[in-house]
Known about the structure:
The protein is α+β, with helices and mostly antiparallel strands. It has two domains: 95 residues, no CATH class; 113 residues, CATH 3.30.1330.60. It is 55% helix and 12% strand. It contains eight helices and four strands; from the N terminus they run H-H-H-H-H-E-H-E-H-E-H-E. Strands 1-4-2-3 form a four-stranded mixed beta sheet. The protein is elongated, with a radius of gyration of 27 Å. Its main location: membrane. Keywords: Cell outer membrane, Membrane, Signal.
Amino acid sequence: MxxxxxxxIASISLAACASHTNVDIDELAEARAAIAAAKDAGAEQCAxxxxxxxxxxxxxxxxxxxxxxxxxxxxxxLKAKTLxxxxxxxxxxxxxCAPPAPVVVEIIKLDGINFEHNSADLTAASTATLDxxxxxxxxxxEINVEVAAHTDSSGSDAYNxxxxxxxxxxxxxxxxxxxxxxxxxxxxxxxxxxxxxGNDTAEGRAKNRRVELRVMK
Length: 217
């Protein structure tokens, strides 16, 4: 409570003298840059209290330097507090004003996409399905999709995750290489985390090894 009151009083008093307090000095370059970065991130709208405190501390620091001479320890503490507040304001802006996460509104199954064993190399037989996917995306030019690749449970979780990441990227590269804008595409591997049937039979494992286009909104 005392600290808040101190900052409030300092903010009010410094606001009154801000017009003649020089903050454009080399010693405050890092602090000014941090506050500017927070502002660019939207802190004045998304984390206004933190941004206001950072600015108040900037003027407080400048006031101490300009009016009372150089006090290394006190100046260093004030600069550190300014930087901390500005960085926290920038971080909070990303949280408070972050755009909503994309939502999957449709799944387009890509039956017939296969890869070489333990590889992200597409088989020749996959071309027909991939070309149909290209045609679908050209026809539905308004949609953005995530290429989602899945594995069965054979092998370790880490291996399957990495393999699915590479396979998703491989399919996305094919689509991009056949004219689909990369602005409409993303890729993500899900490893063995989202099976659609059990992995206890060869047939079940084959069904779980799949690639989908997830329409995102």
